[in-house]
């Protein structure tokens, strides 16, 4: 009887241990599923934003082509308009009742160039004003964001990324686009943009700043647990970075 009791007790202990392991595994599985759902949602939003950016870029290109065609059509119409061909000589022909000296037709010569003088539309088409490109777009866009002109700066930064996608300043450009959304208090979109920096350029110095901003965004949204998660990731991956001291201070304030 004693032996059978010991065997039963051992079986009970073994079963309870298995149950505990299963509960722990179930808890880890649920946490992993929650993290996976969050990542999938953020990736979906990021993909949606990229698609919208491509659509806006195509629309801008189409508008540019339409403007060029309109200017070309206007120039052709000016060349073919018969009014321009007879406008100058009409002022030079004297009326029968007027007493004009033989030298009177002379003023017609200054009027002739006006008939072929290019219009303002033609001049802008032939010699368009200089535009920013490459680093110039980045510098101007960043300056505007720093001046709290988020929408204007973001437009130039997005154009910079489309113009020079292999530039070493691409991580910085994406980061400042995130800053423009942060200025507008569009925290969900700012998080997506900052996460693009950490995902594509995890070793870049802007990744640390992006992690800190993600923490701030979650704090502003009233989600201190998520803020704590990203601040800890910043201190773990970039302990000596510039935003690390501020991250430690914020983490203390959040009780993390």
TrEMBL record:
Pfam families: TPR_6. Residues 85-103, 111-121 have a biased composition (Low complexity). This is Tol-pal system protein YbgF. The keyword Cell wall biogenesis/degradation does not apply. It comes from the Bacteria. The keyword Nucleus does not apply. GO terms for biological process: cell division. Keywords: TPR repeat. Residues 77-128 are annotated as: Disordered. It comes from Humidesulfovibrio mexicanus. TPR repeats lie at residues 208-241.
């Amino acid at each position: 009887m004693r032996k059978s009791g010991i065997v039963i007790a051992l079986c009970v202990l073994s079963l309870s241990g298995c149950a505990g392991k299963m509960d722990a595994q179930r808890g880890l599985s649920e946490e992993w599923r929650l993290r996976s759902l969050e990542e999938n949602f953020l990736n979906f939003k990021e993909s949606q934003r990229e698609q919208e950016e491509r659509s806006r870029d195509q629309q801008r290109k189409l508008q540019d082509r339409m403007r060029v065609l309109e200017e070309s059509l206007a120039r052709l119409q000016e060349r073919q308009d018969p009014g321009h061909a007879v406008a100058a000589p009409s002022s030079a022909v004297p009326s029968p009742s007027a007493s004009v000296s033989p030298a009177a037709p002379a003023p017609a010569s200054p009027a002739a160039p006006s008939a072929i003088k290019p219009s303002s539309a033609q001049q802008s088409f032939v010699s368009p004003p200089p535009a920013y490109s490459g680093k110039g777009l980045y510098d101007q866009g960043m300056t505007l964001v720093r001046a709290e002109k988020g929408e204007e700066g973001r437009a130039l930064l997005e154009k910079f990324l489309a113009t020079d996608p292999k530039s070493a300043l691409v991580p910085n450009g994406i980061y400042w686009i995130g800053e423009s959304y942060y200025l507008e208090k569009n925290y969900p979109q700012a998080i997506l943009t900052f996460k693009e920096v950490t995902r594509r350029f995890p070793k870049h110095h802007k990744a640390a700043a992006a992690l800190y901003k993600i923490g701030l965004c979650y704090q502003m949204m009233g989600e201190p647990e998520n803020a704590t998660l990203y601040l800890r990731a910043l201190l773990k991956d970039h302990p000596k970075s510039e935003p690390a001291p501020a991250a430690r201070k914020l983490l203390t304030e959040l009780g993390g």
